[in-house]
Design brief:
With about 200 residues, this protein is an alpha+beta fold. The chain is built from 4 helices and 6 strands.
Length: about 200
């Protein structure tokens, strides 16, 4: 996208620099510049078309993702030794399954303890929810519909946000009316703020 803006900027500069014709030599330069400007305009049009195609493909992918999520379930508290085939066997009574995905830790390669099961039809999700709290490999599994992540939206957990007590009192409710030992060191830990003797 930035190359498109650079091309348009260069186009404007070329238009502004076109000199008033005095000789026959200037005419050649002007015609060469006009050809260059026409080439740049064609390239800019191609870039705009490519960007429009990319935007359309992104929108179609988002719709497809929502469709897949509508027919998928989240399975929590899965035994670490479970295989996708075993999970598929456990949910086979609900209907036909497209895919079973067991999530792995990207650093260690070990299972995280949860999985996603994608069915062929969204109606099969309701049947799978009946298996919530069922026993799988000696553990009670948690079965919920898979939620669609919306980019930029958080669930209210994680970094940032408001981290404070709601009890009032001295220094935002941290010490029950007494300042913390060692003085007030700031409301947030870490990130280089305040004094930390350790």
């Amino acid at each position: 996208m930035s190359s498109l803006k650079e091309e348009e900027k260069a186009l404007e500069e070329l238009r502004e620099q076109q000199p008033e014709g005095e000789d026959g030599n200037d005419e050649e330069e002007i015609s060469a510049m006009k050809r260059r400007v026409a080439e740049m305009e064609q390239e800019a049009a191609k870039l705009r078309e490519m960007q429009a195609n990319l935007d359309q493909e992104h929108h179609e992918l988002a719709d497809n993702k929502e469709d897949v999520d509508s027919r998928s379930i989240f399975v929590g508290n899965v035994d670490y030794s479970a295989s996708p085939e075993e999970i598929q066997t456990h949910f086979q009574s609900c209907g036909s399954i497209n895919r079973v995905t067991i999530l792995l830790d990207k650093f260690t390669g070990q299972p995280k303890g949860y999985a996603y099961v994608e069915f062929t039809e969204p109606s099969l999700v309701a049947q799978a929810l009946v298996l919530n709290e069922s026993v799988f490999k000696g553990r009670n599994i948690k079965v919920t519909p898979k939620r669609t992540n919306i980019p930029g939206m958080s669930r209210g957990r994680g970094r940032g946000g408001f981290r404070g007590g709601g009890r009032g009192g001295y220094f935002g409710g941290r010490g029950g009316g007494f300042p913390p030992r060692g003085g007030y060191r700031g409301g947030f830990r870490g990130r280089g703020r305040g004094f930390s003797p350790y």
